[in-house]
Design a protein that fits this description.
The complex is a heterodimer of chains A (249) and B (267).
Chain A (H helix, E strand, L loop, with lengths): L4 E12 L2 E12 L3 E5 L6 H8 L7 E6 L6 H4 E4 L14 H6 L14 H13 L15 H13 L5 E5 L7 H17 L3 E5 L3 H7 L2 E6 L1 E7 H6 L2 H5 L2 H11 L1
Parallel strand pairs in A: 3-7, 3-8, 5-6, 6-7
Antiparallel strand pairs in A: 1-2, 1-4, 8-9
Chain B lengths: L9 H26 L4 H20 L3 H22 L4 H23 L3 H6 L10 H20 L1 H9 L1 H6 L4 H23 L4 H15 L3 H26 L3 H21 L1
Helix pairs in contact in B: 1-6, 1-9, 1-10, 1-11, 2-3, 2-4, 2-9, 3-4, 3-9, 6-9, 10-11, 10-12, 11-12
The chains are: A alpha/beta (249), B mainly alpha (267).
């Protein structure tokens, strides 16, 4: 594995039964990359990241990480798409939610100590939601909930953060704040960010790399090359193309 | 005070002791089952246990010796049918449940001798609990509570967000199996306390009452455990003084506790 790379994917294929969802995809990310994954519905984007997260077994190919620690689970932070599905009877506080992000660092029997709770407090303060730690999660707004889940993803001090449509439940103001926060994490802590989103404008504004997937890898590389290349014409609608290009420049 | 004289009877002491341990393990487990929308697995397994108890009586063996392994098999069957066959979880619970009842009816018909014994398990007989059953209940309850304690955070994480918990290394298939096996054990213990027909009450009521008033997950556990023990203590006491069936009275106390928790939340 190239030492500069934090993640290398080689010839990755994933099948659901006989259906081929991802076909021989290869790419590599360096520390501090911010990659936007785009493509049409059913292109295999979520399948690809679920495979990176260990939720789906590849049919063939390799996924290799280059972390300081051997504990891969603790080095990947994940923010799923479904904050809107939080049950309004599940009595879980913000603190209890965020501390779950440290489970990956625990061995049986898994218990949390004072240091863990201090880590939780710190990450909540950093995301400016320290005052919410005792609140029930279902009482919070969509934007606040998203920050809580980001805190859960960040509390284990990950090297890679993976987001699947993180802005679906957010209003435009919260959406901008959220992406600004991601940019800060990416620039200041050099956290590698993998982002699936239909908000094409944000890709142009924040990502330095782009991966266009349509079961097969259509494009992977620097976003500059993509904007200038001809492939953009075939992959995006005219309006989306304009947004990415405009935001990027 | 004279009113407390009934506490000196050993059958009351045994009922309090066994009932409290069983109710506590049911209540703690129930929090996970209710939040995972798996409440009715207790109902299914208790019906299945009816068949297993009938099988024990049919063979002339102490029924719980037969019920423990058979209900464990039933629990795994529920899990595997919904995983492997094209069947949703609730349908698989229904399938295993009716097979248990059907077996009990067939065995009762074949034996022509133990119907009275068998039907005593329908509504429980905590006041007639034997020493060996008290020991059996306490040991199984301690095992269940210990496993819940050691797997608390894994269970919590998998219950709140199963997909996310997998990304933190929680083995959710194993956790689901642990939960199902623990449910099987608690159901068997509860059959003696409240009977086959009312087992679900011990699993569902304390947890749902606690959910009305708690402000975090940890408190839900504490309230659920307290409500369960209160329901056993008050239920057995009321049943003694008013000459009512103990199992049914415990269930009604649980219903009253839920009602007050609900009112408290509304106020």
């Amino acid at each position: 594995m190239n030492k500069k790379n934090i993640l290398e994917i080689k010839n990755l294929s994933i099948k659901y039964g006989e259906f081929l969802a991802v076909d021989k995809v290869s790419f590599a990310l360096e520390k501090g990359d911010f990659i936007g994954i785009v493509g049409p519905n059913g292109a295999g984007k979520s399948t690809l990241i679920k495979s990176i997260l260990g939720l789906l077994k590849p049919s063939s190919g390799e996924i290799n990480f280059n972390f300081d620690s051997k504990n891969i689970f603790s080095k990947i932070g994940y923010l799923p798409q479904k904050t809107q599905n939080i049950s309004n009877i599940f009595p879980v506080s913000v603190e209890e939610t965020v501390v779950m992000g440290l489970l990956s660092q625990k061995k049986f029997p898994k218990f949390f100590n004072k240091e863990d709770l201090i880590k939780v407090e710190k990450v909540l303060k950093k995301l400016k939601i320290g005052n919410l730690s005792k609140r029930l999660i279902y009482e919070l707004s969509g934007g606040q909930q998203q920050r809580v889940f980001l805190a859960r993803a960040l509390v284990s001090d990950p090297e890679i953060l993976i987001f699947d449509e993180p802005s679906t439940a957010l209003d435009p103001k919260s959406r901008n704040e959220f992406f600004d926060l991601l940019k800060t994490l990416n620039k200041e802590k050099l956290i590698t960010i993998i982002l699936i989103t239909h908000d094409t404008g944000y890709i142009g504004s924040y990502a330095n790399r782009l991966l266009y997937l349509d079961t097969k890898l259509v494009f992977f590389g620097d976003i500059n090359d993509y904007c200038k290349g001809e492939k953009m014409d075939s992959c995006f609608e005219k309006s989306d193309k304009h947004i990415i290009w405009h935001q990027h420049n | 005070m004279e009113i407390f004289n009934f506490l000196q009877y050993s059958f009351i002491q045994k009922a309090f002791l066994a009932g409290s341990f069983v109710a506590l393990s049911c209540a703690l487990l129930g929090v996970f089952l209710v939040l995972r929308k798996m409440s009715l697995i207790g109902e299914g397994l208790s019906h299945f246990s009816f068949g297993a108890i009938a099988f024990g009586l049919f063979l002339g063996i102490y029924p719980f010796y037969v019920a423990v392994p058979l209900v464990l098999v039933g629990a795994v069957l529920i899990l595997k049918i919904s995983e492997k066959a094209k069947v949703y979880g609730d349908a698989s619970i229904g399938m295993v449940s009716v097979v248990g009842i059907a077996c009990a009816v067939i065995l009762a018909s074949l034996s022509k001798g133990f119907n009275v014994d068998l039907f005593s398990y329908l509504f429980g007989s905590i006041l007639a609990i034997r020493d060996i059953e008290v020991v059996f209940s306490i040991i199984l309850s301690v095992i269940v509570i210990a496993i819940l304690y050691f797997y608390y955070f894994d269970l919590f994480s998998a219950t709140f967000d199963e997909e996310y918990s997998k990304t933190t290394g929680v083995k959710t298939e194993k956790i689901n199996l642990v939960l199902t096996v623990l449910t099987a054990l608690t159901v068997i213990m509860s059959v003696k306390v409240v009977g086959v027909m009312l087992v679900s009450a011990l699993l569902i009521f304390p947890a749902t009452s606690a959910l009305q008033i708690s402000n975090n997950f940890k408190n839900t556990f504490i309230f659920s455990g307290i409500f369960a023990i209160l329901s056993v203590v008050f239920g057995i006491s009321f049943s003694y003084f008013s000459d009512l069936p103990a199992g049914a009275t415990i269930v009604m106390v649980n219903a009253v506790i839920f009602f007050f928790c609900f009112l408290y939340k509304k106020i």
